[in-house]
Structure formats: C-alpha cells, structure tokens
C-alpha cells in the first residue's frame, strides 16, 4: 500500500483539473507534503471517472498521452459500487505496458495498490469491500507508456497470466541495468541479510538506489524472498540466471514490504533491492525462506516527499 505525496502530482492535478485548487490544497495538507504519513484522502480522487463498472465485467480502455499523470504514471479512473464484506478481484491486463492498480475507498483513502500479482506485467487487487459505498479503481502504466488495456472485475480470482514481465524498450533497458549491477554478496535459503541502501549505491533509471545479491540453491526448489524496511517503501526485483526476464514486487509482503516466490535454477538468480520512488535510503532486511511467513502488519514508513519545479 502506498502513501506517496509529491509536489509534482499536486501541480499536475491542479493544472489539469479545472476548479480543484482548493480541494487539492486540502488533499495534500502540510504534514503530508513534509513526508509524514497521514490518513488524508488520495489526490487520485480528483481524477474524472471514465466509466462505472460492475462485478463480472471486462471493460476495454486505453491510456494515451492525453491522460492524467501521477508520479510519472499515466492513469485512468473507474468507479464501482461495493457492499461491505463482498469479495472483489480487480485485474488490469495489458500487453502494451507494465500495469499498476490502485483502489480508493468511499472516504477517499487508498486501500490497496499492486503491480504484478496478476501474473506477467498485470496488476491484481483481491480484497473484501470494508464498507458500503462507491469505490475508485485507478488503472496506471507504471512506466508511463500508453496503450490498450482491459480492466476486469469479479468476485473470484482468475488464473494469473503466465510468463515473466518482460518485453518492450523499457524492459530491455531494465534487464541491461540489472545485469550490470555488481552483487554485494550472496544469500542462501534460510538466511537473512541486514544491510542499507546508500546514496553511493547503483542507480536505476527512475533515480532509485539499488543493491544486488546472488541467490543459489537446489535447482527446482521453490523459495520465498522477502524484503522489508522501516525506512522506505521497498521494491524487490529478481533477475533470472540468463538475464532474459525479471520479476518485480512492491507490497505483497504486507504494508510497504515486498515478497516474491521464485523457483531456483542451476545458476544463481540476482536479487535487487531498491525503493519505490527515487532517492530513498535506509536500513532493510532481505531474507530467503522455504515457506512464506506472516505478512507485515506495520504501517508504511513516512516517505520523504520528492519536490518538483
């Protein structure tokens, strides 16, 4: 779950949504702009609604360069009415871009966010509606690319898409970048590493710092990799041994912590620790286990706001 506030997102929303200056100023109150976590309404509530969806629906849509931007992502919003306790699974499916999804509650607070839980590069949010009311679903292109997508809503989970998240110029550049990060050390199944992201570490294209580790083990063994931090919103990337594809996860470990299940190969995988957002530093713990442990129940850390012109 993200609680991100930036001056950039404020200026975009105010500049492109007529008459919303007062509301935008309320959404990003001073405490939030300084990077302290507050339970304030999401600025995504300012987005116009593209369509109202219902359970069991598949809606085809497209992100274009004319759509709104949010922290570098192209975004489009949809509404859905929910009943307290009812299950819902939201999939954002695209072959054109790496999709991302946000779920905003009737009170304007962000409830969930996801990158790749739907398999491949597809976003999936599976949850229960916490109260009656109208919810906002925001579909996004994580890399800022435009393209067609389908948003699917159901009361059950469909099988996830098969295959890694890869393809396209962005993914090719990311593969090359990940391959070029020298491993700081090795980690084995059953081990944990406590380390720190520092300003002198390698940088990814979005400005985030990154640190890599090699993971080796019994070929065919499936393990769970967890990345947690109290200092920043974690993002875990795993590069396959051949450097042909990578997996990524933001929040599947609970709160702002990452978790990926991976099947080991003859050659080591590369685990890359980074942050969701640029310039974040701080302590983290990386661990590899045979089975998934309890997910974190901690709140997301207060993140330092990124200022823009």
Q: If you had to describe this structure to a student in words, what would you say it looks like?
A:
There is one protein chain. The protein has 309 residues and is mainly β. The protein folds into two domains: 7-154, Jelly Rolls, CATH 2.60.120; 168-289, Jelly Rolls, CATH 2.60.120. It is 11% helix and 40% strand. The chain is globular, with a radius of gyration of 19 Å. The two termini are 27 Å apart.
Give the C-level CATH assignment of the largest domain.
Answer: Mainly Beta
CATH architecture of the largest domain: Sandwich
Q: How many helix segments?
A: 4
- Residue stretches low in confidence (pLDDT < 50, at least 5 long) are 1-39, 302-309
Distance between the termini: 27 Å
Mean pLDDT comes to 80
Q: How many separate structural domains?
A: 2
Helix-strand layout with pairing:
Elements: H1 7-16, H2 21-27, H3 30-33, E1 49-53, E2 57-63, E3 68-70, E4 73-82, E5 87-93, E6 99-104, E7 110-114, E8 123-128, E9 133-141, E10 147-154, H4 168-180, E11 183-187, E12 192-197, E13 202-203, E14 209-215, E15 222-228, E16 234-239, E17 246-249, E18 258-263, E19 269-275, E20 282-289
Parallel strand pairs: 1-4, 11-14
Antiparallel strand pairs: 2-10, 3-4, 4-9, 5-8, 5-10, 6-7, 6-9, 12-20, 13-14, 14-19, 15-18, 15-20, 16-17, 16-19
Can you tag this structure with a few keywords?
mainly beta; single chain; Jelly Rolls; disordered C terminus; 2 domains; six-stranded mixed beta sheet; 309 residues; 4 helices
């Amino acid at each position: 779950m993200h609680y991100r506030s930036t001056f950039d997102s404020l200026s975009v929303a105010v500049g492109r949504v007529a008459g919303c200056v007062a509301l935008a100023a309320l959404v990003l109150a001073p405490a939030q702009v300084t990077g302290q976590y507050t339970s304030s309404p999401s600025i995504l509530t300012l987005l116009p609604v593209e369509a109202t969806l219902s359970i069991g629906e598949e809606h085809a849509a497209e992100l274009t360069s004319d759509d709104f931007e949010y922290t570098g992502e192209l975004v489009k919003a949809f509404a859905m009415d929910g009943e307290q306790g009812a299950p819902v699974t939201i999939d954002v499916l695209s072959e054109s871009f790496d999709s991302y999804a946000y779920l905003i509650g009737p009170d304007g607070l962000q409830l969930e966010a996801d990158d790749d839980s739907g398999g491949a590069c597809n976003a999936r949010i599976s949850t229960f509606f916490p109260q009656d009311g109208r919810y906002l679903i925001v579909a996004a292109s994580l890399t800022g690319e435009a393209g067609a997508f389908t948003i699917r809503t159901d009361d059950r989970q469909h099988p996830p898409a098969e295959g890694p998240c890869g393809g396209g110029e962005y993914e090719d550049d990311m593969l090359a970048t990940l391959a070029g990060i020298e491993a700081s050390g090795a980690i084995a199944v059953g081990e944990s590493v406590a380390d720190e992201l520092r300003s002198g570490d390698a940088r990814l294209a979005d400005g985030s710092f990154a640190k890599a580790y090699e993971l080796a083990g019994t070929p065919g063994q499936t393990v769970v990799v967890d990345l947690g931090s109290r200092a920043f919103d974690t993002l875990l990337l795993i590069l396959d041994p051949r450097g042909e594809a990578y997996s990524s996860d933001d929040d599947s470990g609970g709160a702002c912590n990452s978790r990926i299940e991976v099947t080991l190969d003859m050659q080591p995988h590369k685990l890359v620790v980074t942050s969701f957002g640029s310039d974040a530093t701080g302590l983290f713990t990386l661990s590899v286990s045979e089975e998934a442990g309890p997910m974190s129940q901690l709140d997301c850390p207060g993140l330092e706001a990124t200022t823009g012109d």
